[in-house]
Amino acid sequence: MLRLEETPTTERPGIRQGARRRVPPGAVWVALLVVVLLSLDVIDLVWIGVVVPVAALVVAVAQGHRPPHGVRWVKRTVDRQDFVALGGFYVGVVGLFRLAFEGFGTDRVAGLFVSFAAGLLLGVAGPVIYMVWHRRRRLRDLGIGTHRLRATVALGSVLAGMQFVMTLWGYDLPKPVNWVPLLVMSLVVGAFEAVFFRGFVQGRLEASFGTAPAVGGAAALYSVYHVGYGMGAEEMVFLFGLGVVYAIAFRLVENVLVLWPLLTPLGAFFNNLEAGDIELPWTSIAGFVDVAVVMAVVVLLARRHERRRDNRTHEPTKIREPAPV
Question: What interhelical angle do 233-253 and 211-225 show, nearest 10?
């Protein structure tokens, strides 16, 4: 595969300093995302899965038909270890979710929750341990951190605002017991999806294949994983289009905070409210909080491990004094 790599350049003669600048590529993508979110109430949901990928492809072709000046193509290397890890974690997560919702079901709540919680933890703790401890990479490679924070907060706020206006603005909430546990669940599941599908799956695909295959591949895997919830083909077509939206938003800033805790939890929360087929007791909050705490502890331990590793790397080499004669 090929990837783009920047090379040193000098200013080309014949270009005036005051020449008009082109619209930044990122602004075009942001405009596309905003239009899509505003169209969710207008376009049939199944068509979202067709229109969004086609629109993204058109923008990508229009902007990326040739490398910009000062950029050259270099050969990509497919990381087989990443592929094995990605496949193993993905099959494990989907299998645990399928076991929870189709195996145990609502008739056996204990088994459902344990399997569901195990899938959530596998999707966050697994990639963190694999990336930080096994591959000696950084949490930033999973999109976890405060890098590009201003752009991340700005973009996340704009997209979440559009989502809120199109879904929850003026919505009459039911009794607290019918929505507070759903909100907590949406926050925890949203954290899992942001880290697993964006930071890990999309990040590893991009490292081996490039941006466009990573966006499409991550969106497709995000869509298919909902088979674990027992969803049908039409729902998964819509989720593919939504996955493209999330993948593009993440690619613009490479920070999971652009999606969580606002954008994806808001969407999941509204969909669960509208469906009305999930009833959670107050006690379920404690279970989801426990899962969130374990996720946070794993990330904090990974951060500590990073710092210790960095300190060891930057320690000055001690020169042993020769023994006295």
Answer: 140
Taking only the tens place, the pLDDT of each residue in 142-199 is 999 999 999 999 999 999 999 999 889 989 999 999 999 999 999 999 999 999 999 9
The total of other beta-carbon atoms located within 10 Å of residue 204's CB is 24
What are 167's two structure tokens? 């879904």
The 10 Å Cβ neighbour count of residue 133 is 13
How far apart are the C-alpha atoms of 12 and 93, rounded to whole Å? Answer: 51
* Residue 68 scores a pLDDT above 90: no
- Measured in degrees and rounded to the nearest 5, phi and psi for residue 214 equal -70, -45
Instruction: Check pLDDT > 90 for residue 206.
Output: yes
